[in-house]
Amino acid sequence: MNRLRAALTAATLLTAGGALARAQAVDSVPAERLAARRWFADAKFGLFIHWGVYSQLGAGEWVMHNRKIAVADYEWLATTFNPAKFDAVAWVALAQRAGVRYITITSRHHDGFSMFKTGATRYNIADWTPFRRDPLHELADACHAAGIKLFFYYSQLDWHHPDYWPRGGTAWNNGRPDQGDWSRYLAFMNAQLTELLTRYGDVGGIWFDGMWDKPDAPWQLDTTYGLIHRLQPGALVVPNHHQRPRPGEDVQTFEQDLPGANSAGFNTSYVSGDLPLETSLTMNGSWGFNITDKEFKSVRTLVGYLVRAAGNGANLLLNIGPRPDGTISPEFTARLDSLGAWLAVYGTAIYGTRRGPVSPRGWGATTRRGDTVFVHVLDWPDPLLPLPPLGARIRTAYLLRGRAAVPVVETAVGVTLAVPPASADEPDRVIVVVTSGSSASNRPGR
Ligand code: FHN
Question: How far is the CA of 78 from the centre of ligand 1 (A)?
């Protein structure tokens, strides 16, 4: 409690004092955070969870905005939220079966409703709803017991808080007063972040979203990032602002796109060469629970994303939208179980790897660990696969599944591998190529 009080005082001071805030600016990165970045780059697979009051309407997490729901009506909706079947241990058991190394869950989305007990507002799940429990606390306990890291998604954009003023690009007339105090809003956010970083044990990091709603507002990021890194020196700042990374940020994350791609229309083409990378992806077309969205990606497609993310040096943060009663629909659980079964066999070619010597191609991708290169053949109809030189002589090559030797022809201009025929039960034919040495770096993102 003393730790919390001290931290809250520090948060207030930091918010008030620009000079002190600048002194806290993160220019040099301490060893603990560098180690956390390496851990993150090794992890490769995370589970994203979008869950909140909006889940009740079964129309995604933007339903308040999309249906232009007034604050007063949404507040009433929140009083009925009672996810009695929520079972943190079961959620984490599913995550373990899937083979994810971390979970990132919405602590507060754009609707402004806090999914944790907070002293900063009564508009939170423990004080506002009949549920009364703090699901994030239960989830944190279950994650710690299972050795899975927990990250908190935190929306900077808020459709409910009166002090989110002036409003941003997504605003509509929802019954809030046309006035507010921005510095009070920043203090509110910093107080909540302080709670998240002092009451839930070790936290993997904070995953920010929504700054794009007011890109030019004085967000005082140095203050907030400094606060996070001071409270938990190993916690990572993951900003989903779709821009080039700034000082104090630890991961470059891309939404619905692999690093550098921009099919979603808002990702930057800049890809950091120093920071770990991440791609967040919906399993169907929605983040929050959407009862009519049945456009689920196949297991083969999801394996392809995981492999291509790793081939780009990135993690895959794969999303589920649990139901309002706390259960998880079978479309999600079945796919996660299948990915876990796939990783049980092929995980060595994913976890702890960096991107390989051949950048991702139409046929697949390469990853590497030390002197071993993993050639992931996702889509190639022919029995021979030509590659550019791998940067070191080849000592041996074999199939990951079954260990059968793979014939290789190595010349001055490249390498040709014999590829086994494609089969329905093997979305990724992985060839393990052991080379005579590697000068490849183990840096995150590389
Ligand atoms: O608006 C959000 C959206 O609801 C969701 O949370 C995704 C997750 O990457 N991010 C935002 C859009 O950038």
Answer: 21
Which tokens belong to 293?
A: 């969205």
Ligand 1 centroid vs 186 CA: distance in angstroms?
20
Is residue 280 within 8 Å of 319, Cβ to Cβ?
yes
Cα of 153 vs centre of ligand 1, distance in Å, is 10
Q: For residue 168, how far is its CA from the centre of ligand 1 (angstroms)?
A: 15
Q: Which contacts of 290-294 are long-range, i.e. CB under 8 A and separated by 24 or more positions?
A: 290/58, 290/59, 290/60, 290/321, 291/58, 291/59, 292/58, 292/59, 293/60, 294/331
The pTM score is 0.93
Residue nearest to atom 11 of ligand 1 (CA): 209
Atom of ligand 1 nearest to the CA of 153: 6
Q: Does domain 355-435 have CATH number 2.60.40.1180?
A: yes
With a Cβ cut-off of 6 Å, ligand 1 is lined by 61-62, 209, 240, 255, 280, 287
- Per domain, the residue ranges of the chain are 2-352, 355-435
For position 444, what pLDDT does the model report?
64
Residue identifier of the C-alpha nearest atom 5 of ligand 1: 287
| Domain range 2-352, CATH class | alpha beta
Q: What is the pLDDT of residue 266?
A: 87
What's the pLDDT score for residue 1? 35
Flag residues of the chain having pLDDT under 70.
1-27, 438-446
- Compute the distance from residue 400 Cα to the ligand 1 centre, in Å: 36
Q: What pLDDT is recorded for position 118?
A: 98
